[in-house]
Amino acid sequence: MDELINQLKKEVIEQLNLEEISPDDINPDSPLFGEGLGLDSIDALELIVLLEKNYGIKIQDPKDGKKVFHSIRTMAEYITEHKK
Amino acid sequence: MADAMLPLYFRKINMDLLITSYCHLHDNKVIVNDRLFFYQENILKFADFIKSVYKQENVNYPKFYKMDPISKVGFLAAELVLKQTTIEGYHPEKVGVVLSNSSSSLDTDIAHNETIKNRSSYFPSPSVFVYTLPNIVIGEICIKNKIKGENVFLISETFNGKLLCDYVNELFINERVEACLCGWVEVMGNNCNALMVLVEHAGRKQNEGVPGFKFLPFNAENLNLIITLN
């Protein structure tokens, strides 16, 4: 899980162009939206693309998004659970 | 007779507009109000050039990194222009933005096409797609500077100072604006040429300028001079 979390941090930084943030700056349990990284709605769409492009996972129910993208750790847990 | 009571034709004659601040980005060089703000030889990539200017300007606006190339250039040019002066005395709805270029959002359209051209790897990027309109740069400038006035993005084959002057003059004549950012923001690949000027009415300008820079009358000749001489 730790390896996946570290990989996800790097992928999120690259996908969302978070140039001034390093993987060590991201607490895997901190909220990605609002506080924490302060991501916006376009970033949320980019994260959906990231899951599909890098892990072949489609979010089927939009209601799941809030739970899946709460933090890096919840993303990693969702990937572990759904990766084909 | 009060200016507003005059027929439009006479008000046009009375219009006395000045360029009170300008910025020109071109060929790895940034000129602000006749002074060299940034120059670095041997920068081959646009991305490296604009990032270096951003770092030197020390804006601290993380969203900058998410913008497309045109928005980055327009945003930084506006920052550099407004750093030399102030628009805080104007009502936000009386500050306009009139920009232009020749290739519209083609540079970003190409980037978007890269994400969708291969059907077996079809992953359109939402953050690229939202910039596939040229006027998004105006939105970025307005958000950062709390500008809510008239705005338009014009397309012309080459830089057309007269078109810009005519449009901005009309905004002033019709009292839609009291100050206006105006210019040219062109980026294609690693080539960039951007001019941004702040236009204010001579009698109502908010600042007295900076040493070494004399306000210029706002006309097509001066716009052409700035963009060709620097």
Average pLDDT, all residues of chain B: 91
**Shape of chain A, please?**
globular
Largest sheet of chain A: none
Could you estimate the helical fraction of the residues of chain A in percent?
40-55%
- How many β-strand stretches of chain A? 0
What is the CATH architecture assignment of chain B? Answer: 3-Layer(aba) Sandwich
Order of helices and strands of chain A: HHHH
Domain tally of chain B: 1
Oligomer: heterodimer
Helix content of chain B: 25-40%
Quickly give the structural class of chain A: mainly alpha
**Uncertain runs of chain B:** none
CATH topology of chain B: Peroxisomal Thiolase, Chain A, domain 1
What's the tally of helices of chain B?
A: 8
- Radius of gyration of chain A, Cα only, in angstroms? 12 Å
SSE arrangement:
The complex is a heterodimer of chains A (84) and B (230).
Chain A: H1 2-15, H2 41-55, H3 64-68, H4 72-82
Helix pairs in contact in A: 1-4
Chain B: H1 8-14, E1 17-26, E2 29-32, E3 35-39, H2 46-57, H3 69-83, E4 95-101, H4 106-116, H5 126-129, H6 136-145, E5 151-155, H7 161-173, E6 179-188, E7 191-201, E8 216-217, H8 220-229
Parallel strand pairs in B: 4-5, 4-6
Antiparallel strand pairs in B: 1-2, 1-7, 1-8, 2-3, 6-7
Helix pairs in contact in B: 2-3, 3-6, 7-8
Summarize the structure.
The complex is a heterodimer of chains A (about 80) and B (about 230). By secondary structure, chain A is an all-alpha fold.
Provide structural commentary.
The complex is a heterodimer of chains A (84) and B (230). With 84 residues, chain A is mainly alpha-helical. Chain A has four helices and no strands. In chain A, helix 1 (2-15) crosses helix 4. Chain B has one domain (17-229): 3-Layer(aba) Sandwich (Peroxisomal Thiolase, Chain A, domain 1), CATH 3.40.47.10. In chain B, 36% of the residues lie in helices and 23% in strands. Chain B has eight helices and eight strands, in the order αβββααβαααβαβββα. Chain B has helices at residues 8-14, 46-57, 69-83, 106-116, 126-129, 136-145, 161-173, 220-229, and strands spanning 17-26, 29-32, 35-39, 95-101, 151-155, 179-188, 191-201, 216-217. In chain B, strands 1, 2, 3, 4, 5, 6, 7 and 8 form an eight-stranded mixed β-sheet that branches. In chain B, helix 2 runs parallel beside helix 3 (69-83). Classes of the chains: A mainly alpha (84), B alpha+beta (230). The A-B interface holds A 16-20, 38, 42-43, 45-46, 49, 52-53 and B 62, 65-66, 121, 123-127, 130.
